[in-house]
Amino acid sequence: MFSRVARRAFSTTKVNPYKVTVLGAGGGIGQPLSLLLKLNHKVTDLRLYDLKGAAGVAADLSHIPTNSVVKGFTPDQDKGLHKALENTDVVLIPAGVPRKPGMTRDDLFAINAGIVRDLAAAAAEAAPNAAILVISNPVNSTVPIVAEVLKSKGVYDPHKLFGVTTLDTIRASRFISEVANTDPTQEKVNVVGGHSGITIIPLISQTKHKNLPKDKKDALIHRIQFGGDEVVQAKNGAGSATLSMAQAGAKFANAVLAGLAGEREVIENSYVDSPLYKSDGIEFFASPVTLGVNGVEKIHSIGDISSEEEELLAKCKETLKKNIEKGVAFAKK
């Protein structure tokens, strides 16, 4: 039971209203992501954009009794993309084609790179101060593309550009709990590096399960790195990780909104413009970041790691550097 004073304080607590835009809201990730954002009490103005179908998704979600207005936008409307983005606080970009069996994230590059580039240009013009959360793969390359576009428009703020790697951390929590037979909600794994294959480094040595047998540990690391393949294969070519990715995107968006609202000690892992390995020529890297009213408030080091993880990090850097260079080169064409 709340005391009378506590009840009054609880009932009068105000939540900052935020405008959030989802670019690619009609897709496999976009629809469940939009649903989760509709349920987020921090979001009071939800804009959904896609090439088609956004109005239908918006109408569907608008029937849910939460304190937010939902509107759909398409390119056939007058300035549809601009209106979806205008003065928004947070932009999520899940737009693009999904992975199919046999495809790597790099295979998606030719298509998704162009989509992300054009959406970033629109965001630069209509919402230059927004936090931009990139979900579209390959994140290792699409985030640098967005950065270069924003730089070309004179509005780049490294504190407000994020590659969403949350799916790696939630997978790690789930998978390690299955190996150790524990509660997945109580497992926290620091996953650093990038967001594809061997660039994903789960730091098992920092968990309470660091003494797992080597064969189990190696299998666990591989499953976390290539967990997306499980879903692609299980869906028999009909799609990739959409529902889990939507949950991951909504979780990270909520953390960004919490930071913007001034909540304290909001820390999540994200792929950002980072100083950690710039001396190695790596401009972007995923590690824990503290989120605040200006976006990234602090970038944390990856912490102490084992010799095996040092080897994983070395391999990660080699691939990550190439992925970043590929994105930058595309954006500068």
From TrEMBL:
Substrate binds at R99, R105, N137, R171. The active site is at H195 (proton acceptor). It comes from the Eukaryota. Residues 165-330 form the Lactate/malate dehydrogenase C-terminal domain. Gene3D superfamilies: Lactate dehydrogenase/glycoside hydrolase, family 4, C-terminal, NAD(P)-binding Rossmann-like Domain. Residues 19-163 form the Lactate/malate dehydrogenase N-terminal domain. It holds the Pfam family Ldh_1_N. One of its GO terms (cellular component) is mitochondrial matrix. Its EC number is 1.1.1.37. PANTHER family: MALATE AND LACTATE DEHYDROGENASE (PTHR11540), MALATE DEHYDROGENASE, MITOCHONDRIAL (PTHR11540:SF73). This is Malate dehydrogenase. The lineage of its organism: Eukaryota, Fungi, Dikarya, Ascomycota, Saccharomycotina.
